[in-house]
Write a structure and sequence with these properties.
alpha+beta, two-stranded antiparallel sheet, 3 helices, elongated, binds zinc ion
Length: about 90
């Protein structure tokens, strides 16, 4: 019997309540879209190209819809916990 080693991309616990993912049912994916500041290119410094902030979507899991809502209210805090748990991005 084989099981994926990291079913939730290495995340094992809910960053909101600390429960194990899956313990309360199907985990809920939380997607958080952030604008990643880019180093301006030479063209942008010269004003020849407009700045376009890159959107990046970070996603992590919460154990239940209630925790997902809580995570969305302050995603950076909870994402930081997930990153620490995963041991990196
Ligand atoms: Zn939770």
């Amino acid at each position: 019997m084989t099981r994926p080693a990291e079913p939730y991309r290495g995340q094992k616990r809910c960053p909101v309540c600390g429960a194990g993912l899956g313990a309360r049912g199907e985990p809920v994916s939380v997607d958080w879209s952030i604008a990643v500041p880019q180093k301006p290119t030479l063209w942008q410094k010269m004003g020849l190209q407009s700045k376009t902030p890159q959107q990046q979507t970070m996603s992590f899991f919460a154990c239940c819809p209630e925790c997902a809502e809580a995570a969305k209210s302050s995603p950076s805090t909870h994402l930081a916990k997930v990153i620490v748990e995963r041991g990196g991005m």
